[in-house]
Design brief:
Blueprint lengths: L1 E6 L2 E6 L2 E6 H8 L8 H8 L12 H4 L1
């Protein structure tokens, strides 16, 4: 399972027992979108090759 914790400057990720940080700029470059318009599903797709996506995607701007 992958855990994501969003804040104003990026996302703390726990993936397969490893913790790391995805900075806001990296996420914007990877998605081609403003950070607040990126969804949690899009961040999961950056982290995992084939994530199990469930529920409605939530925009970072709504989470913050």
């Amino acid at each position: 399972m992958t855990a994501l914790a969003f804040d104003e400057t990026g996302v703390d990720v726990e993936y397969q027992g490893t913790e790391f940080r995805l900075e806001k700029d990296l996420i914007e470059d990877a998605t081609g979108k403003s950070y607040v318009d990126v969804t949690d599903h899009e961040v999961l797709q950056i982290v995992e090759e084939d994530p199990s996506l469930s529920g409605e995607p939530r925009r970072v701007g709504d989470v913050l």
